[in-house]
Amino acid sequence: MDGMFSIQVLSRALETWGLQVVSLGSEEGRSVAANPASAPAYICNLQEHWFALRRVEGGEWWNFNSLWVGLAPLSGFYLQAFLDSLREEGWTIFVVLGSLPAPQPGSLDAGTAGRWWSPEEARAATDEAERARKRGRLTAALEGVFERADRAGGAITLRSRDRGPGEPLSEGRATDSLLSDVPGGG
């Protein structure tokens, strides 16, 4: 009812595709752990959050974590380090064994769910999502500045936190000062 699935439910769903899910810590999973890029996919869980890592055409890996800004590519080299860091953070990792369905590129037919993206489309979507996230932070910061100015009678004074009274403010310093209140903004 709450959308929280157990690994048993996910396992049963994947069985319909001829796939098997095993814990990375199991005997079968440990054989994959020596060469993590040999698995077709991983399912990761922490508390009530699940996400997948999947190998696609050309051996590229993608992180499908919905908490991230967009799809994130992973190199085969980084995959091992990423899985290790997840385990250290308390994530439970499951290996998907078997042959994943082949990508079905192209447009959606009526009644089908999802859409296959090429790696280039996924990268472009991720880059655009990151740009939108940054624009959103800047917009929020500017709205906050304008709100404070409105409450103070409509005046806006730009000054750097480390600038003394009467000291000129350069354009770069104004930008730095404005963005210093924005998380990750500068």
Helix-residue proportion: 25-40%
Q: What is the CATH domain class of the largest domain? A: Alpha Beta
Largest sheet data: 6 strands, antiparallel
Based on Cα principal axes, name the global outline: elongated
Structural class: alpha+beta
The order of strands across the largest sheet is: 1-6-2-3-4-5
Distance between the termini: 43 Å
Structural domain count:
2
The secondary-structure element order is HEHEEEEHEHH
CATH architecture of the largest domain: Alpha-Beta Complex
Q: Which fold name corresponds to the CATH topology of the largest domain?
A: Cathepsin B, Chain A
Rg, nearest Å: 23 Å
* Record field, number of beta strands: 6
> For the residues shown, what is the average pLDDT?
75
| Tally of alpha and pi helices | 5
Strand content: 15-25%
Low-confidence stretches: 171-186
